[in-house]
Design goal:
The protein has one helix at about 30-35; strands spanning about 5-15, 20-25, 35-40, 45. With about 80 residues, it is mainly beta. Strands 1, 2, 3 and 4 form a four-stranded antiparallel β-sheet that branches. The mean pLDDT is about 90.
């Protein structure tokens, strides 16, 4: 299983005249290609299959790297 580092990033939004965080995460290369600013303190490694499904180097919109997926493995209590 291959891993890739992705970052949250921000872009200038002409509609609001402000910089805002994207709802996607991306690789440094993909962020640079669209003129975004990577938030380097957000770096996280994810499965490479989570990147590039819609846009090369980007996750899907609404991506949350901290969200748990799959079945519950243990019970705490």
């Amino acid at each position: 299983m291959s891993r890739v580092t992705v970052y949250q990033f921000r872009l200038y939004d002409i509609g609001t005249d402000e910089h805002r965080k994207s709802r996607r995460w991306g690789t440094l290369e993909a962020i640079a290609q669209i003129g975004g600013e990577a938030l380097t303190d957000t770096a996280i490694e994810v499965d490479a299959a989570m990147v590039g499904t819609e846009i090369a180097g980007m996750t899907e919109r609404g991506f949350d790297p901290h969200k748990r997926t799959g079945f519950q493995q243990t019970v705490t209590g």
